[in-house]
Write a structure and sequence with these properties.
The complex is a heterodimer.
Chain A lengths: L4 E4 L9 H16 L5 E6 L3 H7 L6 E6 L8 H15 L3 E5 L2 H14 L2 E6 L1 E5 L2 E8 L4 E7 L5 E5 L16 E3 L12 E7 L12 E5 L10 H10 L2 E4 L1 H5 L20 E5 L5 H4 L7 E6 L6 H4 L2 E4 L2 H16 L1
Parallel strand pairs in A: 1-2, 1-4, 2-3, 3-10, 4-9, 5-9, 12-13, 12-14, 14-15, 15-16
Antiparallel strand pairs in A: 6-7, 7-8
Helix pairs in contact in A: 3-4, 5-9
Chain B lengths: L1 E5 L2 E3 L21 E3 L1 H17 L2 E7 L4 H10 L4 E5 L9 H13 L5 E5 L10 H9 L3 E11 L4 E7 L4 E8 L2 E5 L11 H7 L4 E4 L18 E7 L8 E3 L3 H15 L4
Parallel strand pairs in B: 1-4, 1-6, 4-5, 5-11, 6-10, 7-10
Antiparallel strand pairs in B: 2-3, 7-8, 8-9
Helix pairs in contact in B: 2-5, 3-4
Classes of the chains: A alpha/beta, B alpha/beta.
Chain lengths: 327, 264
């Protein structure tokens, strides 16, 4: 096995999302720890613009698989292109941004090439001559330290917000074709289309103040104190995923990786434990207040102010205090 | 249709969690276990499809003795029988090891469809269903928000959740593995009649040898990942905590938001 570190960069219409740059930064750091330079891999059709952007990074090379069969993503076509390339080059690590697309195909790619599978890492460190990786478990309530055993390539996905995108090192990289035969690449699902969810959508990104609730609210019939507080603050009401899945609020009120990403002046999270999928959607807020009855809830690690308590007691008290302060 | 549904029993994330003495996982004493959330939705979807097409659901789970409770619950809501990968050799595995074992168990019987949850609420690798599909050589879709069978066509119209409020709609040929996202349907509760009937239903225990697998290919021995330790993140790091009863804490918070953060 080689010491090579690859990073597969997801892009859309020539644009790389922030999490792709974060994955590139993580791959650079990982490569440096192995004494090499990272190499980027881009898949798609007409990826010239994205490749030119990536070529401005400090990388050993940018390998491009540019083919009509890769124009639309399916696991079958992406694995068809990447599996033989990984088997031929046998990199030590292949890094991916931890996106829904990555989770759709990375595990099966690992199975196909006999590689290790290390999803959703948030950090790594060198320890006892090896690497020790950090990833969330129990919905982010705990962190685990993980070691990889055995020989062979490891596929790693990097959670959003873990490696700052502006930490990516600039430089100059050569763009060349990925050495793989793409003639036999086949999709394994027939894409019929893409649809927007929700229809009537509330644009939460424009709100200055957001009151967000989680599972802890307890039911659709227990919203009165939340509504009263939102009125007192002039806030929009939003929620974490369990509230939406239970049908207590419509889907266009969801904050997080499968909902909206917001950064209001004030974000008040009540009854939200703070799974990483929620945190990625709100941790850029200027001021974060967390109210939760569990003092160990991960939401307190990103909050500026916290109250440990039952939201059904705290929210009415807060509404009263706000109205009193406003006179 | 004959449908295999894979479920995992996981600790209730809402419970009070304690790290085990060796620091490598949770202390399981007094820890409440439940069926993984997205797996409950997979089971419900399997039961609905089986009812509509006149088929049956066989439920599979990998784990220690306590997992029987989860399997019994699945039988009580309508699964026909259960297969329990109960041998200690199966335990402590990553998604690749679990997927290899479950695929071998599923392949012993003929199925038209395999349903799993999208991600476990404990270790959360999110890959077991896709690995099963890889071993079976079937297509798969992860994070499924809708399944519409196209009978006679041998396919299904499948809606997959993508980021930022967009769904992908695709046609997938069957048999396939669909990894169900929570929120797809409304899981049913067991009736008293169902609970009684479940007591008579079969839970078949299988070993690696039954599946034609070597013990070194499954569980901890067959995994590339090893959890060295788990810990709680530093609580309240950076957060100023307001103390006192609800009223005192609320008053203190409003003062901070007005005078310090200046957002009110």
């Amino acid at each position: 096995m080689s010491n090579r570190v690859w990073v597969v960069l997801q892009h859309r219409e020539g644009q790389l999302p922030r999490i792709a740059w974060e994955a590139a930064a993580a791959a650079q750091k990982l490569a440096a720890s192995l004494g090499v330079k990272a190499e980027a891999v881009l898949l798609g059709s007409g990826v010239g613009l994205a490749a030119a952007d990536v070529a401005k990074l400090d990388l050993a090379a940018v390998h491009v698989a540019d083919h009509d069969a890769l124009r639309v993503y399916t696991p079958g076509s992406y694995i068809g292109a990447l599996a033989p390339a990984i088997q031929a080059a046998a990199p030590a690590f292949v890094v991916f941004p931890h996106t829904y697309q990555t989770v759709d195909y990375m595990p099966r790619l690992a199975q196909a090439v006999g590689a290790g599978l290390l999803p959703e890492i948030t950090a790594f460190e060198e320890k006892d001559g090896g690497l020790l990786w950090t990833r969330p478990v129990m919905g982010g309530k705990l962190q685990s330290k993980v070691r990889v055993k055995g020989e062979g390539t490891v596929l790693v996905s990097v959670q959003s917000g873990s490696f700052p995108a502006d930490g990516v090192a600039r430089g100059e990289a050569e763009v060349k074709p990925l050495e793989v035969d793409l003639a036999g690449v086949q999709p394994d699902r027939e894409i019929l289309g893409y649809e927007e969810v929700g229809g009537d959508t509330v644009d939460l990104t424009k709100a200055d103040v957001i009151v967000a609730i989680g599972r802890g609210v307890g039911g659709a019939d227990k919203m009165a104190p939340v509504e009263a507080l939102a009125r007192a603050l002039g806030a929009e009401i939003a929620a974490s995923r369990p509230v939406i899945d239970n049908g207590w609020l419509p889907r266009d009120r969801q904050i997080g990786s499968s909902g909206q990403t917001v950064a209001p002046k004030l974000y008040l999270a009540a009854g939200i434990s703070g799974a990483i999928q929620h945190l990625v959607g709100m941790k850029g807020s200027s001021v974060i207040v967390a109210i939760n009855k569990d003092p160990g809830a991960p939401i307190f690690t990103v909050a500026h102010y916290g109250i440990v308590g039952d939201l059904h007691e705290v929210l009415p008290a807060l509404t009263e205090a706000i109205l009193a302060a406003k006179g | 249709m004959k449908i295999a549904v894979c479920i995992k029993q996981v600790p209730n994330t809402e419970a009070r969690l304690r790290v085990s003495r060796d620091g490598r996982w949770l202390d399981e004493e007094d820890l409440p276990f439940i069926i993984n959330e997205s797996d409950e939705y997979a089971l419900e979807e399997g039961l609905r499809i089986a009812e509509k097409t006149g088929g049956e659901v066989v439920v599979f789970s990998l784990g220690p003795e306590r997992v029987k409770e989860a399997l019994r619950k699945a039988l009580a809501v309508g699964a026909a029988r259960a297969v329990h990968l109960s041998d200690p050799a199966f335990l402590g595995g990553d998604a690749l090891a679990a997927g290899r074992a479950l695929a071998a168990a599923i392949a012993r019987d003929g199925f038209d469809l395999v349903l799993t949850g999208s991600q476990s609420d404990d270790v959360g690798y999110g890959g077991t269903g896709s690995v099963i599909a890889g071993h079976l050589g079937w297509p798969h879709v992860w994070l499924v928000m809708g399944v519409e069978l196209e009978e006679g066509n041998g396919s299904a119209k499948v809606t997959r959740e993508m980021e930022s409020g967009v769904n992908e709609v695709s046609r997938v040929r069957l048999p396939a593995v669909l990894e169900i996202q929570a929120g797809l349907n409304h899981p049913r509760y067991a009736s008293l009649k169902g609970i009684m009937a479940a007591k008579k239903k079969e839970i078949a225990a299988v070993t690696p040898a039954d599946l034609g697998l070597d013990a070194a290919q499954v569980g901890e021995a067959g995994s590339r990942l090893e959890i060295v330790s788990v810990s709680f993140p530093a609580s309240g790091k950076g957060a100023q905590m307001m103390s006192g009863d609800a009223k005192a804490a609320a008053v203190a918070l409003v003062e901070k938001l007005q005078k310090e953060a200046r957002v009110l």
